[in-house]
Amino acid sequence: MKIAIFNDQQLGIVFPEENRIVDVSNAANWDSKNPEASFQNLIEMFDDLKPLIENEMMRGKAFKLSEVYLRSPVPRTRKIWAAPVNYKKHQEEMNKQFNNAPLTIEDLALFLKSPDSLSGPMDPIKLPFTNRRTDHEAELGYVVGKKAKNVKAEDAKDYIFGYFALLDISIRGNEERTWRKSFDTFTPIGPWIVTADEIEDPNHLSMKLWVNDELRQDGNTKHLIYDCYKCFEVACNNMQLNPGDIIATGTPEGVGPLMPGDTVKIEIEKIGGFTVKVEAADQEKSENPKQHTIKK
Ligand code: MN
Fold first, then answer.
1. Other beta carbons within 10 Å of 277
2. Sheet (strand 256-257) strand order
3. Cα 28 to ligand 1 centre (Å)
4. What spacing in Å lies between the alpha carbon of 42 and ligand 1's midpoint?
5. Alpha carbon distance 5, 87 (integer Å)
6. Could you tell me the sign of the dihedral formed by the alpha carbons of 123, 273, 244, 54, in that order?
């Protein structure tokens, strides 16, 4: 099932090959005025709601997918756990470009991104500092479906609600990762959530990213150092994971800078993709940090 949130915060099931999205809000106790609580209820009660949604899929109001505005399929999250370097070739390219081999997930475990950095698959990425190198990172992301603590990788599958494409937008430099990756619009996700039952093996999905039609990243989750399930294990090792929490699994090689006016497209096998514009954020009140400005 491909679950989207669209237009005025309605809940939709998507049929991409038919260019169709069906409004199933009625079947899911969905309140468009409160998508946050509605989403929480949806994933916590999904086993009960699923048959009702499947029924509504047949008779709910249908729209052309190409004519709706897709929102972030997770309207609000309490935390985003993200993997630092989690592909060997990405470590190599960072070493080449910045002359230091960054440590990988094996040494650093995970880091947090601000939940408020979340944005939708049609919302523009807004660059806060146009003189700072700000990169795209194409990643597979997923949303947690059940409370979890000390769940081992081999059991993680049962706790994942669904998958989506995720951009981990990142300012390069020496500041804390959390700061460099937490600006508004720095975590676009989408275009919808593909429920876990439709993704037999998340650790074997090809992933591509283009900037202005130039292919920049061409990877596959089979090269992850810690795969999706191992990331889950790390994220709930003696800590609570809650329904609605998001995990970003890391980016393959090919990262590069974004500039205002660029268009970024991400696509992941069996999930789908989205295209977003890059803009300069309102600069009036911002001050550019002095270090690590782009060398011209
Ligand atoms: Mn990343």
1. 14
2. 170-171, 134-136, 256-257
3. 33
4. 28
5. 31
6. positive
Closest to 138 in 3D by CA, of 293, 268, 272, 251: 251
Residue 57 Cα, ligand 1 centroid: separation in angstroms? 35
Residue with tokens 């993709």, as numbered in its chain: 273
Distance CA 221, CA 153 (A): 16
* Strand-pair partners of 139: 166
- Would you call 271 exposed, middle or buried from its count of C-beta atoms within 10 A (0-12, 13-18, 19+)? buried
Q: What are phi and psi of 99, to 5 degrees?
A: 60, 25
The alpha carbon of 136 and the centre of ligand 1 are apart by a number of angstroms equal to 9
pLDDT band at 294 (very low <50, low <70, confident <90, very high): low
Of 158, 238, 165, 151, nearest to 207 by C-alpha is 165
Q: What is the whole-number distance in angstroms between the Cα of residue 234 and the centre of ligand 1?
A: 16
Q: Quick count: other Cβ atoms within 10 Å of Cβ 127?
A: 24
pLDDT tens readout for residues 249-268 = 999 999 999 999 999 999 99
Alpha-carbon Rg for the chain in angstroms: 19
How many angstroms does the Cα of residue 139 sit away from the middle of ligand 1?
Answer: 7
Cα–Cα dist 219/268, whole Å = 10
Q: Is the pTM of this model over 0.85?
A: yes
